[in-house]
Amino acid sequence: MWSWSRFKASHHFINKRCSLQNTSRCLSTVYALSSGQGKCGVALVRVTGDKAREVFTRMTVPPTLPEPRMAVLRRIVHPATRDGLDRGIVLWFPAPNSFTGEDSCELHIHGGSAVISAVLGALSSLPGYYPAQPGDFTKRAFYNGKLDLTEVEGLGDLIHAETEAQRKQALQQMEGALGQLYTGWRQVLLHCRANIEAFIDFSEDENIQEGVVEDVEVKVRKIIKEMEHHLSDNRRGERLRSGLQLAILGRPNVGKSSFLNALVQRPAAIVSPVPGTTRDVIETTIDMGGYPIILSDTAGLRDTDDIVETEGIKRALARSRHADVAVIILEATEIVSLLEKGLFNWDRFIKSYFAELGIGENEDKTLEYEYSSSWISNEKYVILLNKVDLIVSEDEKRLLKSALEDPCFLVSMKTEEGIENALLKLKHICASLCESGTAENPTLTATRHRTHISACLKSLKLIINNYNENNYHTHLEKGEKSNSPKIDELSANNSNISETAYHFPERETPNINIHSSTQAFEEFDGNLLRSEETLLIAAHHLQKATNHLGYVTGHITTEDILDHIFSAFCIGK
Ligand SMILES: Nc1nc2c(ncn2[C@@H]2O[C@H](COP(=O)(O)OP(=O)(O)OP(=O)(O)O)[C@@H](O)[C@H]2O)c(=O)[nH]1
Ligand SMILES: [Mg+2]
C-alpha cells in the first residue's frame, strides 16, 4: 500500500547521514586550533564529540561543567600531571545546541606557540581524543543536519572570500538562501510525485480528490519557469565566486603591461620600448570595487615568424576567448591620423580592428567563433587610446575628444590622465557581470549546482513536453516482460549513493523494460500527465528531478562529492 508517511522522510535522511560514514570517525572526539597559526593575543581551541565534557572535568579548575553557552574564566591544567598550562575563557555547548550538533567546547587561551602546543598536547593525552582533519567540524554539522550541502559550500566560500562582493554572496548562501530555494522546489516535487503515485494506485477509488494531476502540471510548469530564470543568470554567481577573467589585448608596444602595472601598483610585468617584450600570459589578481578580477597581460598581437612570439600570441588569443571582460589598448596617435583622413566611423573601425587583431567576430559566426568573442557580443570591454601625452597639438587633442564614443577612453599610462574614468567604466562592467543575488532570489554559485539544476529541469520538461503517444505505444508493445527494474532503481545508477531517496511500494509497472526505453521516452514529444498510461513515466522523471535537487542540498550524497567539498576546508572548521 502506498502511504504518505513514506514520503515524509526528509528528516530520516539527516539522521542517516552519520551512519553512512566511517562510524568510528563520527564517534571519536576531535580537537583543533581553530584560530590561525602564528603568535596572537588569543587563540581558540575547539573540541567536539561525545567526550568533549571531559575537557572541563579533567582539564579545568574547578573540574565542573560550566553553564551552557556561558563564558567562564578557568585555570587550564594537564589532565595527568595537573601542571598549570594557562588561564582562559572556556565555553560549554551541550548537544544538540552547538555548531556540530554534538557536545562541544571552546578554550580561549593565550596565543603563544608554547601555550597552544601545551594545550593541544594535553588534549591528545585524553583517551578517545584525536586531532581534527580539515573540515571535520563542518562535516559533523552536516551529518547532524545543522547545515545542508549548499550552506556548507557557502561557509567554505566565506572562509575563502577575498573581496566584499564574494563575502556577501557566501554569507547569503551560508545563511541558507540557496538551500531554501532548492529544498522548497524539492518539497513541491516530492508532493507532486506522491500525488501522481497515489493517483496511479487509487484513481479508481473515490478517495482521490479531483484535479490532482492538473495541479501537478501547474506546479511543474511553475518550477520549470523559476528554474529557467534561475539558470539564465549569465553565470554571475559562479563568476563572482571564482573571479572575473579580464584580458588586456592589443598590438605590441601600446602599453598593455604598463596598464597592468598601473592597476596592481607594482612592476608585475616588464615594460620596455622594444615591441614584443611580453611573450607569456602574465596573470595577477586584484579587487576592483569589491569584485575579484583575474587580470591577464598578454603578448602583443601581430604577424611574426618568431616561434616563441607566435606561441605567446596563440596564448593571448586563447585568453581572449575565455575572458569575461577585455581591455583593448591602442595608441591615440593611430586614431588621430585616421580622423584626419576623415570618414571615420567607430563601429566600423572597432569591428575591423578586432578582426585584424584576430579577436573579432567573423562573417559566418560559427558557434565556436560566437563563443570566442562573448565579451564582444555582450559589450563587456573598454578601449583605451593610450599615450595621449604624446599628442602635443591642441587641435589634434580636440579632434580626438570630439570623436570619442563609449566605451573609448583617452588615457596616458605615463601621466595617469583618464585612467580613473576608464576604471570606473570597468567597475560598472564587472558589477553587471557578477551582481550578487538577493535572499529571495539567490544566485547559483557553483558548476555542481548548475549541472544538477539543469538535469532537474530537463527531467521536468520531459514530463510536460516530450511525449509522443505513438512512440509510447510502440514501446509498450515491444517491452520485454521481465527484469523491469522498479522506478527507484532507475536513478540509483551511482553505486556510491548513500540512499536512493524515497522508497515506493511494490506496484505493477507497465509491461515494459524502462531501462531500455528510458532513452526513447526522453525523446517523446508530448505531455506525460495527460494520459493515465504515461503517469508512471512522469513519476519516474519526477523522481529523477527530486534526486538532482537532493544531490545539490546533500539530502542525497556521494562520498566523492563530500570529499571534494570538505577538502577545501581548513583544520578547525
Ligand atoms: N609616452 C608614453 N609612453 C608610454 C605610455 N604607456 C606606455 N608607454 C611606453 O611604451 C612602451 C611600451 O610599453 P609596454 O607597457 O611595455 O607595452 P606593451 O603593450 O606591453 O608591449 P608588448 O609587451 O611589447 O606587447 C614603454 O616604453 C612604455 O614606457 C604612455 O602613456 N605614454
Ligand atoms: Mg607587454
General shape: flat
Ligands, ions, cofactors: guanosine-5'-triphosphate, magnesium ion
Q: Work out the oligomeric state of the chains in this entry.
A: single chain
Distance between the termini: 45 Å
Fraction of helical residues: 40-55%
Structure described in brief:
It comes from Halocaridina rubra. Helices cover 47% and strands 14% of the residues.
Task: Give an account of the 3D structure.
This protein is α/β, with parallel strands linked by helices. The protein folds into three domains: 10-147, Gyrase A, domain 2; 177-233 and 444-554, no CATH class; 244-433, P-loop containing nucleotide triphosphate hydrolases (Rossmann fold, 3-Layer(aba) Sandwich). Helix content is 47%, strand content 14%. It has 24 helices and 13 strands. The strands form two sheets. It has a seven-stranded mixed beta sheet with strand order 3-4-5-6-2-1-7. The protein has a six-stranded mixed beta sheet with strand order 9-10-8-11-12-13, with helices on both faces. The longest helix is centred in the first third of the chain and has 26 residues, at 177-202. The chain is flat and about 85 Å long. Residues 1-25, 367-371 and 467-517 have low confidence and may be disordered.
Strand-helix topology:
Blueprint: H1 10-20, H2 23-27, E1 29-33, E2 40-48, H3 54-59, E3 60-61, E4 72-77, E5 84-93, E6 104-111, H4 113-124, E7 129-131, H5 136-143, H6 149-160, H7 164-174, H8 177-202, H9 212-231, H10 236-242, E8 244-250, H11 256-264, E9 282-288, E10 291-297, H12 307-322, E11 325-331, H13 332-340, H14 346-357, H15 367-372, H16 374-377, E12 381-386, H17 394-403, E13 408-410, H18 419-433, H19 447-464, H20 469-478, H21 487-491, H22 514-522, H23 535-553, H24 559-566
Parallel strand pairs: 1-7, 8-10, 8-11, 11-12, 12-13
Antiparallel strand pairs: 1-2, 2-6, 3-4, 4-5, 5-6, 9-10
Helix pairs in contact: 6-7, 8-9, 8-23, 9-19, 13-17, 19-23
The protein binds guanosine-5'-triphosphate and magnesium ion.
Magnesium ion binds near residues 256, 277, 278 and 297.
